[in-house]
Amino acid sequence: MKAALRTFLLLLAPGLLVLLGGLASLLRTGQVDPRGWMAPALLLIPAAALIGRRRTEGVVWWIGLGTVGMVLSCLFLAAWRVPALVPLTWWLAVALVAVIAGLMLRAPAKAGAGRIAGAGLALLAVAMCWLARDPPIQPATHPPKMAVITGLPLFWRGEAKVDAPIITVLRQRFDVRPLDSPLALETSGARTLLLAQSRAFSMAELVALNAWISRGGRALLLADPELHWPMELPLGDRRRPPAITLLGAMMEYWGVKLMPPQAGEKRHFLGDGRVLTLYAASGFKDAGPDCRIIGRGLVARCGVGKGSVTMVADADLADDRLWLADPAAPLEPEQWTADTPQFVADALGATLPAGRRWVRSGDALVTAVRWAVIVGIFWAALGTALFRPYRKAPSAPSSPQFDQPTPLKDG
Q1: Are 305 and 213 in contact (CB under 8 A)?
Q2: Are strands 192-196 and 218-222 parallel, antiparallel or unpaired?
Q3: Contacts 24+ apart (CB under 8 A), 261-266
Q4: Is 195 part of a structural domain of the chain?
């Protein structure tokens, strides 16, 4: 019984350690990325080396397969989507190289060639963990001009001119031009516009905005019915953005109506798997003939003459606290906690890295870890039945043999 328990724990422990080790990356950003388990997979190197010295090579491979099964189960159940092919390939490659390296390192000290090769493979596995990272977003060669009209502090912080992280990302795809009024759109040379919680416009400015879009302009409007953007400026300061959107009448003219806000922070999943983190967001209704409401009511897209406008019922989503884990690294997609930069760039006609998988909820993650552990327990129990060292039953003692006395001959 003790031998079976030792075998069971031996088969379960490495996979369990790798599984738990990768959860730190997932909990930090919410991204369900197999590459978050690459560094923990390096634990298979010492595990394979130590276990391979006492058990057969088949036991080591059984542990490797169990580890892969546990991690893949957790990845799928946490996001309810199959992991992306490229990150999955990197993870499987590191796990394979780690097991082979450990098996080669188990060789006796006098087998120098095998140990050197194993050390080389171990270094290769470490290098693969580094090479698999997404590169930072690089600037476009000939970025088009993009105008930005906003009341949000996207270009300053305190008294200093500092780009907000969302602007830092957009500068990699556009020649960003901040404007004070829609009246300057015609002479700006921009064909795209980011309009985020702007001040109230005069009638002439509203006419100029509508005319610019009608002539082929492309606009993204972030309209918040209850802004919660953190501000150090006192109430009444003209530099503060409006607490509610002042373009409700313009949106109704384009064909949609903004609904009242909902309280609290919420992760909002779009139909294509992308996720946006919102705060007191609203929604749209009453789509006109030239409008289409998507994203479960959060986004409305309307055709305006030859142009188009995409409207989002929240402006807080541009706040880096709702989409970025490390404020100093907005250009590294692995630090994103939501698809906000990719969504904004896509609405403006540019491309950014996409296809990330996200954990659906806290309950989904708990369920995923629970079932992954169950998979590991089942696999370890099956391996215990296959690899348990059985003792041979003692043979029955043979009866003692006595030499027969040699009969004496007469005479």
Answers
A1: yes
A2: parallel
A3: 261/224, 261/225, 261/226, 265/322
A4: yes
Cβ distance 6 to 55 under 8 Å?
Answer: no
Instruction: Report the candidate in 233, 255, 266 with the shortest Cα–Cα distance to residue 338.
Output: 266
* Within-domain flag for 355: no
Report the pLDDT averaged over residues 246-272. Answer: 90
Domain count, the chain: 2
In angstroms, the CA 267 to CA 279 distance is 9
What pLDDT does residue 44 have? 95
What's the CATH number where 323 sits?
3.40.50
Q: How far apart are alpha carbons 294 and 158 in whole angstroms?
A: 37
Tell me which H or E stretch contains 269: strand 265-269
How far apart CA 358 and CA 340 sit, in angstroms, is 13
Are 243 and 100 part of one and the same domain? Answer: no
Residues 6+ apart with CB under 8 A from 219: 192, 193, 194, 195, 209, 213, 307, 308, 309, 310
Q: Which domain holds residue 77?
A: 2-134+360-387
The stretches of 132-256 forming alpha helices (DSSP H) are 165-170, 185-188, 203-214, 248-254
The model's pLDDT over 16-25, given as tens digits with 9 standing for 90+, comes to 999 999 999 9
Q: Are residues 364 and 302 in the same domain?
A: no
The Cα–Cα gap between 366 and 353 comes to 28
Residues 164 and 124 reside in one and the same domain: no
